[in-house]
Amino acid sequence: VEEENEYIPPGIHIEIPESIENSPYKKEINKGINRIKRFLQKELSIGEIYEKIVREIEEESFSYESFGKVGYGPNSVTIRLTMKSFAEELYKDFPYKPFGIAMGNKVVISVRNILDKATNYDISEIIERIAQHELWHVAGGEDDFYSKGIANPNLTYKINKDEKRRIKERILGIISE
Ligand SMILES: [Zn+2]
Description:
It is built from 6 helices and 5 strands, in the order βαβαβββαααα. By secondary structure, the chain is an alpha/beta fold. Strands 2-1-3-5-4 form a 5-stranded mixed beta sheet. The two termini are 30 Å apart. Zinc ion binds at residues 133, 137, 143.
């Protein structure tokens, strides 16, 4: 029996699909990943950051099953980027097509959904903001349905100081529990 579901070590794990290499937006996407890393290091003071290149198999979209294959450890948080769009089963309760989804300690960012809608914007900034927003959910934060973020979830998500403080406390708690 193969041990597929080994726990990953404590820390933040960024999973990057190798197909980003073939994207015309490769430069912007990599800049976005670097912005996430800088946020984690500078603003959350997290040193344990791991990066892993993953191969995405040909499926139509990123589904519950794909979520299950994202790296997991009880003391880790995984930020997975995907070049796929999300399967509808993942966002049937959302009033919009999301750029990112958080479940437990896993965050998935659909670069594909971002590129489908936001190429007139700074892709790297959107990737960073979505990562921050989804980490807010990992920290137990709720969406503010009256905020502009919900009316225009793609572009206006910006965490505030209090949210940042809560993210920091919670994430540091998870990776050191
Ligand atoms: Zn949200």
